[in-house]
Amino acid sequence: MKTKAFSKTYGRRRVLELPELELPEGQITAVIGPNGSGKSTYAKILAGIERADEKKPILSGGSVGYLPQKSFPFRMSTEKNILTNGSDRTRAAELMKTLSIDALAKQSAKKLSGGETARMALCRILMNRYDLLILDEPTTAMDMESTLAAEKLIREICGETGCAVLLITHSISQARRIADRVFVLQRGELIEQGATEAVLSAPSKEQTRRFLDFYGL
């Protein structure tokens, strides 16, 4: 799947200026960069939540699933929340068991903790199949055990369905664990892209090296 070149401005401030990019099927592309680099805005534009300045389709086609950075529960049980995105109860049960929230299936989702809500929201988005799955900081509220389980599930879904996954993450370690490729954004511009290990171990741009050094890599 390809995304067309586009820009995004708020008033006189340009927050994104990106070239045409490839999101390979069956691969996870992580988007990393400092706070304010435009990562979430990029996700929202691809998901159709916000519009680019050009007011034209950015994606080349296909279905898109989007999990926003802030997870939210509807006023119903955990299981019913998940079933709002698909009617397959067996799949819902499998997803809940994988992310260890099966015991909370009948509990009001409004009573879930932050980490439990994040796991519920990930189960909900994974009830359907997409050509492009956009996940914005899906594990931020999770503990390490839940994070690793979620990463394994995302990796499996990507491989099984052949979808392209765009993962917005603040965690360089997470990108290294599960992403095939990375985009590095800084001040709304793409400063580097490539295979994950190549970029993280031997970045070609000084800006990328400084960013990685700051995060201890």
In short, what is this structure?
The protein is of the alpha/beta class and 217 residues long. The protein is 35% helix and 22% strand.
Write the layout of secondary structure elements.
Blueprint: E1 2-3, E2 6-10, E3 13-18, E4 21-22, E5 28-32, H1 39-47, E6 64-67, H2 78-83, H3 89-98, H4 114-125, E7 132-136, H5 144-161, E8 164-168, H6 172-178, E9 181-186, E10 189-195, H7 196-201, H8 206-214
Overview of the structural elements:
This protein is α/β, with parallel strands linked by helices. The protein has one domain (2-70, 129-214): P-loop containing nucleotide triphosphate hydrolases (Rossmann fold, 3-Layer(aba) Sandwich). It contains 8 helices and 10 strands. The strands form 3 sheets. It has a 6-stranded mixed beta sheet with strand order 6-7-8-5-9-10, sandwiched between helices. A two-stranded antiparallel sheet has the order 1-4. The radius of gyration is 17 Å and the shape is globular.
